[in-house]
Amino acid sequence: MSGYGDFLRGLWRNPGAVSAPTPSSPALASAISAKVDPLRPGLVIELGAGTGVVTEALLARNIAPERVIAIEYSAYFAQLLKQRFAGVTVVQGDAFDFERHLPAGAQVAAVVSGVPLLNFPLARRRALITRALALQGPSGRFIQLSYGWRPPISSAFGIAPEKTVIWRNLPPAHVWTFSAQAHAPQGANDNAGCAMDKPAPVLGRALPP
Q1: Where would I find the beta strands (DSSP E) of 73-172?
Q2: CATH of the domain at 12
Q3: What is the 8-class DSSP label of residue 71?
Q4: For residue 33, is pLDDT > 70?
Q5: What residues form DSSP beta bridges with 90?
Q6: Higher pLDDT, 15 or 77
């Protein structure tokens, strides 16, 4: 119950920074971490790490703690993460400005996000996702937890996200996985996602309840 208690305390301190009234289930955390290839070299950036349920799942996937950078806006959650995960780099900061917290020239393997993106303007969502994918280069991934039935943006670089529905979570959740094209330019600017406003088919599957 301590994990749930930590979540409730963080929710009470800053409700707007939390994406759901309940913490992510182990099934949801496992589904998110499964989208990260542990053999792809580079850092794994976790945006909005909260109480660390997904952080724990990433480590269980044999991703070394030294490869994980967890960026959390809430001072309470950031301190909790530092106490729970030795070796993980925990930064209290703005996920939308994540690049400033990365080592110079760092290679990024994947970006995982628990930030409630649907609470933010479309332009900010678009900028975050396209920048994160462009930073990774070919085969990069931006993996987004969401409780909405529509993705935060319709596509990135013309590619619709893959959808996975997690029924074993309260409430049921979606994992939206955006992938970078082989020719996605490094350092793409915020306007690179203009194609995302065009309708695109969503690839999806649902995990059984």
Answers
A1: 89-92, 108-113, 141-146, 162-166
A2: 3.40.50.150
A3: E
A4: yes
A5: 70
A6: 77
